[in-house]
Amino acid sequence: MAAPRRLPVDPIAEAKRQWIAHGWENAAAGMTAVTSIIRAQQLLFARIDTALRPFGLSFARYEMLRLLGFTREGRMPMASAIARLQVHPTSVTNTVDRLARDGLVSREPHPADGRAAMLVLTDTGRELVERATTALNTEVFEDPGLTDADTTELVRIIARFRKDAGDFTEPRPQPDPL
């Protein structure tokens, strides 16, 4: 795939200029921040998709496999996966259906709740997620395109934003500061 053509002007900076010109000065900085974050997400997802494509994984499928891979026994209740991934239950169900179809996870009855299901990482799923993680680490996470200092500051700012928005509370005990 050819590299995208670089634009001669930053469209977000131009949008900010237009916001100000149209009398929306009070919203211009916020619009710029929001659209900048969305564009950065698009750029990062493109890199992630490129890294995961050889493994036949979307980021959602990778996240589910990685989540299960982090557990002691490669299993967790479906409800716990939904809560940790912070996505709609239907999205998790669809992701699990595809992973099960491909033999990467299986569903088992919950040992204590007959209405619930346990998600179980298969040996094939474990091997695939380890290889995919190596690729993501090498191709995306080790060099996200920011300096170490900028990465640390960005994570701090976004964590504060997420916390203030009610995304999480301070865990006890607290992890080492970022």
Automatic annotation (TrEMBL):
The entry's keywords: DNA-binding, Transcription, Transcription regulation
Signal peptide: none
GO MF: DNA binding; DNA-binding transcription factor activity
GO biological process: response to stress
Keyword Cell wall biogenesis/degradation annotated: no
SUPFAM superfamilies: Winged helix' DNA-binding domain
Keyword Transcription regulation: yes
InterPro entries named among the record's database cross-references: HTH_MarR-typ, MarR/SlyA-like, Tscrpt_reg_MarR-type_CS, WH-like_DNA-bd_sf, WH_DNA-bd_sf
Domain HTH marR-type intervals: 30-163
Classification via SMART domains: HTH_MARR
PANTHER family according to UniProt: TRANSCRIPTIONAL REGULATOR, MARR FAMILY, TRANSCRIPTIONAL REPRESSOR MPRA
Protein's name according to its UniProt entry: Transcriptional regulator SlyA
Species annotation: Microbacterium trichothecenolyticum (Aureobacterium trichothecenolyticum)
